[in-house]
Amino acid sequence: MNCWEVLGIEPTEDHQRIQLAYEQQLKFASGEEAEKLDRAFREATGGAPKPEAPQAPVVDQAPESDRALDANEGQIVREVVIQINALLNDSGRSRDVGIWKAILCEPPADQAPVRREIARKLEPQVRPMAENGSLPAPVAQFLGDWFEWASLQDIAVQAEEPQAGSAETDAEEADQPPQLVNFWPAVIGWIVGLAILASLFGGMGGGG
Q1: Is 96 left (phi over 0), alpha (psi -120 to 50) or beta?
Q2: How many CB atoms lie within 10 A of CB 196?
Q3: DSSP the chain
Q4: What's the predicted TM-score (pTM) here?
Q5: Confidence of residue 119 (pLDDT cuts 50, 70, 90)
Q6: In the structure, what pLDDT confidence band is assigned to residue 1 with cuts at 50, 70 and 90?
Q7: Is residue 88 within 8 Å of residue 47, measured between CB atoms?
């Protein structure tokens, strides 16, 4: 058998193809057959076969949201926390959900790792305020959705239910026809009063 028959390919000068054929045959070769393959490879290429490259181990990469923050992202977290603390000191602005969104949703503060760290920093102070009603329902609902704080999401749902019931009651009252006010008792009373006065004045005139 010539070298090409041992390798199981047609004669070629493509060293990469010869290397692949050699490696494929080597997987199923015994000791003696492996020696024949080595000789066939040298004859076909004029050199020794390259050792098979070891496969790189697969490293489990941490999810994007769980990775550690770099220095720039850490600075962004600190700046956002400072802005939120300043917002909480202004009772008027802290009730505006639009301002909360402008601070927390501004890139790159909206990226998952940064958002997670901001939530961790703010939770001890902001979450209890939202839960006890210190912050209005729209702000609490936004914080619950943005930071995935389930307790705030529940509060928002409970706050919406009474409003829905009130709206239904108002709609039912609006559908009812207006009630007409009955003026007849007052008119009759007025006429009777006039008749009594007329009789009194008439008696006084007759007596004179």
Answers
A1: beta
A2: 10
A3: --HHHHHTS-----HHHHHHHHHHHHTT--HHHHHHHHHHHHHHHSSPPPPPPPPPPPPPPPPGGGSPP-HHHHHHHHHHHHHHHHHHT-TTGGG-HHHHHHHHSSTTTTSHHHHHHHHHHHHHHHHHHHHTTSS-HHHHHHHHHHHT-HHHHHHHHHHHHHHHHHHHHHHHHHHSPPPPP--HHHHHHHHHHHHHHHHHHHHHHHH-
A4: 0.47
A5: very high
A6: confident
A7: no
